[in-house]
Every structure is written in C-alpha cells, then in structure tokens.
Amino acid sequence: xxxxxxxxxxxxxxxxxxxxxxxxxxxxxxxxxxxxxxxxxxxxxxxxxxxxxxxxxxxxxxxxxxxxxxxxxxxxxxxxxxxxxxxxxxxxxxxxxxxxxxxxxxxxxxxxxxxxxxxxxxxxxxxxxxxxxxxxxxxxxxxxxxxxxxxxxxxxxxxxxxxxxxxxxxxxxxxxxxxxxxxxxxxxxxxxxxxxxxxxxxxxxxxxxxxxxxxxxxxxxxx
Amino acid sequence: xxxxxxxxxxxxxxxxxxxxxxxxxxxxxxxxxxxxxxxxxxxxxxxxxxxxxxxxxxxxxxxxxxxxxxxxxxxxxxxxxxxxxxxxxxxxxxxxxxxxxxxxxxxxxxxxxxxxxxxxxxxxxxxxxxxxxxxxxxxxxxxxxxxxxxxxxxxxxxxxxxxxxxxxxxxxxxxxxxxxxxxxxxxxxxxxxxxxxxxxxxxxxxxx
Lengths: 223, 208
Fold this sequence. Notes:
The complex is a heterodimer.
Chain A: H1 4-32, H2 37-51, H3 54-65, H4 70-79, H5 87-112, H6 115-123, H7 128-136, H8 141-156, H9 160-166, H10 176-185, H11 189-219
Chain B: E1 2-9, E2 18-25, E3 30-34, H1 41-49, E4 56-61, E5 64-68, E6 73-74, H2 77-80, E7 82-85, H3 97-104, H4 108-117, H5 133-146, E8 151-155, H6 163-180, E9 183-188, H7 191-195, E10 200-203, H8 204-207
Parallel strand pairs in B: 3-9, 3-10, 7-8, 8-9
Antiparallel strand pairs in B: 1-2, 1-4, 4-5, 5-6
Helix pairs in contact in B: 3-5, 4-5
C-alpha cells in the first residue's frame, strides 16, 4: 500500500493549521473587537467556504491561481511561482477553505470573555498585545485547541477544492481523500478501505483527545 | 489634584439622563461616591480611568490633561497610571494569586507586603476559581495597588467581605493609602459600607 497520500495529507493539514493559527488568531481578535461595516464584509467573506459547494470555491481558486489570469499570472510572471497543480497551491487553498473553522470559534470565545478582563489589564499598564497574549489567549485555550483540531481534521477531509486546484499528481497533490476516490474509480476497494480507515482512525483519535482535554480543563487543577 | 468637568449621557435603560459632574479631588484624599444602581457611578469611574469617554468636558490630573473633547485629547488607560478595582473583580482565570501580582509589578518586596496585607500569602498558588468571594475581592484590591498608582478607583470593593474582614481590610487599607499618598475614589450603593471609610461624600442623586 502506498502511504504517500497519507503523509501528504498530514503535511498539508499540519502546515495549513499552523498558518491558520498565525493568521487566524490576530484576525479573530480584530473581528471580536467592536462592530463596523468592513468587519461584517470580512466576516462574510471568510464564512463563505462554510456554505459554498467546495467545487465552486475550487473553481474560483482555479481561475485565480491559473497562470493565464490575474493573481496566478502575476505570480507566475513575477516570481515564477505556479499555484495550480502544486503543493503550495493546495496549502493556500486549504488555508482559505478552513479559515472559518479557525476564526469563527476563536472569535466567539474572545467575545464571550468579560470585557473587564481586558480593561483590568489595560489599567495595569499593559498594551493590547500583552493583554491578548497573557490574558485573553490563555483563557480561551479549550476553544483554541478545538479550533486547531477542527481545522486540522477539516483539512484532512478536503476533497472538492483539492481536486480542482491540485488534481491527482502522486507525491505532489494526491492526498488521501483523492486516493480514496481514485481507488474506487479503479475498483480497488481494498486500497480505498485502507485509506478510509486510516483517515477515520486519525480523525476519531483527534476528536476523542479534544473531548478529553476539554473535560480535564473543565475540572481544572488548583494551579 | 484631579479636576473633572464632564458631561455623561447615561444609557437608555438607565433613563438616558444627562449627568453633569464638576468636581475636584485633592491629592491623597478619599472621596466616597454614593448613589443608587444605574445612577452613573461606575460610568464615572470608567471615564476617569480612560476605559470610556465622556460626551464632552475635561479631566486634568496633576496638570496633565487626560481628556479634553475640544483639543481633542483622550489619554489611554495605560498612560493614566491608575488602579481600578472592578465590581466583578475582573480577575484573570488563568493566573494564580502570585501571577496576578507579578503581572502588575516586578517589585517582589512590594508583592510580598501586599500578600500579607490581604492575608493571601498562603494562597499564592491558587487560581481565582479556588478562592472564596472575599479572597477574590482582596486579590482585586491588591492587584490594583500592585502598580503603586497615584489614583485608586474602587467600584463596590467591599460588597463580598464579611463585616470582620471588612473592618480589618479597611483599617489596613486606609493606612496603606495614607502611606502611599494615593488619591482614592470609592463607589458604593451602600452608604453604611462607605461610613467605615473616612472622607468626603459625593451623593450621585444630587448630581443628576
């Protein structure tokens, strides 16, 4: 059995989750603070992948990343970078596709914290960044972990977007979900079952781990 | 000396009244603000702290303008160097008693003294969830004092303390505030509670 689709999937999910932690956390923080029309627009844009068929999102990303059009052409002509049918393209698509799974829960968790926590920190002379880093972020740890795991698990299961952007290139863009589809197409049910079982097991273990962590957090040690 | 001449618009669910406050707070003095719930006491404290802004007016502390709608100036809470005791304590659930004080100050000697004052020296590794209501309230007061502020704003600071603890803490606190020369504004809806504190009374019913 060729395990490369599994490793590629884990690599893709890991990189996408890390990038989303870096991009998504400050973004969620910004969205959680006050209301403005521009924030509503941004929030709507990042929520679109939740409601759009993945193939629609994949189609537009394919157009955007294509070396013949706009962004893709500029990247190709300026930096000699091709995002379509490449691993970096998959990563970028995954970041966009999984963004609502990271930003949404983190934003809600930040909004549920009492405003007075941040206010107390400001009166102690702390900056907004120090307040975010030392007060707000540690107090949404369970939501943060849940978001990260959901993002990871969601990226593991990507299919439509990945197929449109990456196609099915072994070792480059052939992730596990594509390998399952490909195996079924070839009537190779044994391989399809193996890939499916591995994905199922990884996801199940991840979800169990999150539930156990959240239960432990709820009990909470004294210090 | 802190000089306040501001206009506050109360929220609609509190009547939406316009409150005009003109007052001077002498350095090192204690002012007790009394008034019913929703009369704007907490709002006033938050405006002094820079956590919200008045409709218009001016706040000047020791010659430095903190707020002036005409210039316009609105100094951030970080730059006002005040201590604030919140009504809901606003303790950080992720931090222990010790970490609360270390977050506010690097002065270990001062932290030790505060812990003794608040009788929390045996609870340094406890997080707020594992403290009683009185201990949480004391921690909120100690944290506000940890930065050695020039102005201490206290919003209903003694409501969760039993009368014995209240008497002890207020006695110690009065001494400490005097030593530090901290200008103090303490707010309560319970006039009897404020009686234990010596100082000028500002009745919010008269201000509306």
